[in-house]
């Protein structure tokens, strides 16, 4: 059996460092785009009313740029093969309150991974 050279190639983009959004809010957006084509994903993310869709849109652009520049794949043939959202570190801040006390503010972060593959031409 002869395999196509580009069939197992997968481009990815990671957003790890301070992506200050809840895992649940990011997963709500990621679940809508998983398994869709690249162009359809861009249309969906541009029209979504959620704040979390903008960083994910930038990440999809980055993954497509990685695919076209590093691997020579055509952007029109790409689709989202895998999309993951995992919990990151919790940033803790102290806010001053009355009578010299402090209140702990917990900012949740998440790690987002998007993998793009080329559609097989059969």
From TrEMBL:
Keywords: Plastid, Ribonucleoprotein, Ribosomal protein, RNA-binding, rRNA-binding. GO terms for biological process: translation. Pfam families: Ribosomal_L22. CDD domains: Ribosomal_L22 (cd00336). InterPro entries: Ribosomal_uL22, Ribosomal_uL22_bac/chlpt-type, Ribosomal_uL22_bac/org-type, Ribosomal_uL22_CS, Ribosomal_uL22_sf. It comes from the Eukaryota. It is found in: Plastid. SUPFAM superfamilies: Ribosomal protein L22. Coiled coil: none annotated. GO terms for cellular component: large ribosomal subunit; plastid. GO terms for molecular function: rRNA binding; structural constituent of ribosome. Belongs to the universal ribosomal protein uL22 family. Part of the 50S ribosomal subunit. This is Large ribosomal subunit protein uL22c. It comes from Hexalectris warnockii.
């Amino acid at each position: 059996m002869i395999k196509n050279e580009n069939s197992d190639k997968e481009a990815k983009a990671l957003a790890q460092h301070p992506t200050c959004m809840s895992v649940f809010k990011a997963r709500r957006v990621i679940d809508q785009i998983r398994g869709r084509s690249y162009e359809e994903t861009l249309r969906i993310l541009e029209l979504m009313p959620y704040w979390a869709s903008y960083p994910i849109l930038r990440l999809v652009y980055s993954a497509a740029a990685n695919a076209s520049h590093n691997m020579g794949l055509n952007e029109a043939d790409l689709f989202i093969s895998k999309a993951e959202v995992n919990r990151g570190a919790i940033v803790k801040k102290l806010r001053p309150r009355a009578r010299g006390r402090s209140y702990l503010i917990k900012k949740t972060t998440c790690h987002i991974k998007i993998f793009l593959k080329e559609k097989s031409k059969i």
